[in-house]
Design brief:
Layout lengths: L2 H24 L5 H20 L5 E4 L3 E6 L2 E6 L5 E5 L6 E7 L3 E8 L3 E8 L5 E6 L2 E5 L4 H14 L4 E2 L7 H34 L3 E5 L3 E6 L2 E6 L3 E7 L6 E7 L3 E8 L3 E8 L5 E6 L3 E4 L4 H14 L4 E3 L8 E3 L3
Parallel strand pairs: 4-10, 7-9, 14-20, 17-19
Antiparallel strand pairs: 1-2, 2-3, 4-8, 5-6, 6-7, 8-9, 11-12, 12-13, 14-18, 15-16, 16-17, 18-19, 20-21
């Protein structure tokens, strides 16, 4: 498998794992620890292929030279080569597409000396071959100076009639293309940052919670959380004004609401959907889980509590500020 294919495979696996990881967390199927572990593994899958990417590979054929590297696959007929040269160093410039490590870069690049070009260059090697073929410019070297020198000598023997030129400064047209590429990259970065900031701001302000009492069940709909509780599964219900919601395991927590899977010392892992500015909530205990919710005001919360108590058979419990002063009630 080629280096670029390894990288793309790692990227696809990373995206798939991230999507699955977020889905499992939001639905309460994993906790935050396992979520972090899967996220770390996905990052390793993205980075690991780059550690095994091969460098530049050059093969001479009867009619062409074939240069391959991560994100580079150039078959160059000898007859299309207009000139070539070698330089001691080459400024990195801007990566348009491809792989850019700390010392090795390959793919489509642009810089001030060459303009747009195809690159497969190890910056540690102080010798770079530059081939020009009409509108294409290819810059590459091998893993050592000796290997690069051998390739250069072989190239000279294959195209003895092609001139060897010194590296000329970019033309005005090259400079225009370079500035355009730089503006495009800057615009992409600004747009990406703006989108991220807008997404963060949106996540900090979204949120809605509603609850309905159906014939057989209590239905709670909230952002990133939905819960149906059958009346027959409810053991008792209480109104609380002293709740410690604990830590979010998965779901949403912002300035408006807390929704999803939470964990505290009292209930362990439980389901939560509350407005943060409402000082009180309803705790629904069932045979298998605990669900805590409220509505947009304390009056609305008390109203649905009273309605819920009329639909179920069993005791309710109302607490005041101190949890040790619970007392059984059938209404408030």
């Amino acid at each position: 498998m080629k280096g670029s294919q390894k990288f793309l495979a790692g990227l696809i696996l990373t995206i798939a794992l991230n999507v699955m990881d977020v889905f499992l967390l939001m639905n309460g199927l994993i906790d935050i620890v396992l979520f972090s572990v899967i996220m770390l593994i996905s990052m390793i899958l993205l980075i690991l292929p780059t550690a095994f990417m091969g460098g530049t590979n050059v093969k001479f054929g009867e009619r062409s030279i074939h240069i391959t590297a991560p994100f580079v696959d150039q078959e160059i007929p000898y007859t299309s080569i207009t000139s070539f040269t070698s330089v001691r160093s080459l400024d990195r410039g801007t990566r348009v597409f491809g792989y850019g490590g700390l010392r090795y870069g390959s793919g489509d690049f642009t810089n001030g000396s060459l303009g747009p070009h195809v690159r497969a260059v190890d910056s540690r090697i102080p010798l770079v071959i530059i081939i020009k073929t009409g509108k294409r410019t290819i810059a590459f070297n091998m893993g050592t100076v000796e290997e690069t020198t051998t390739i250069l000598e072989e190239l000279e023997s294959k195209i003895p009639d092609v001139r060897i030129e010194t590296l000329l400064p970019p033309t005005p047209e090259d400079k225009v293309v370079f500035r355009r590429k730089r503006r495009i990259m800057a615009t992409i970065c600004v747009v990406a940052i703006a989108v991220i900031l807008m997404f963060v701001a949106w996540m900090m302000t979204i949120g809605n919670i509603s609850a309905t009492l159906d014939d057989d069940s209590l239905s709670i709909d909230a952002t990133l959380m939905h819960e149906d509780v059958d009346y027959g599964d409810i053991t008792y219900v209480e109104i609380r004004t002293d709740m410690d919601y604990g830590d979010r395991v998965g779901g949403l927590g912002n300035s408006k609401v807390l929704t999803g899977n939470f964990r505290n010392d009292e209930f362990g892992k439980y389901r939560l959907a509350v407005w943060k500015d409402v000082n009180g909530c309803i705790v629904v205990h069932t045979t298998g889980k605990t669900v805590v919710f409220n509505l947009e005001s304390m009056d609305a919360t008390r109203a649905i509590y009273e309605d819920l108590m009329e639909r179920i058979d069993g005791a309710s419990m109302v607490s005041i500020q101190k949890p040790d002063l619970y007392h059984l009630h059938t209404s408030i």
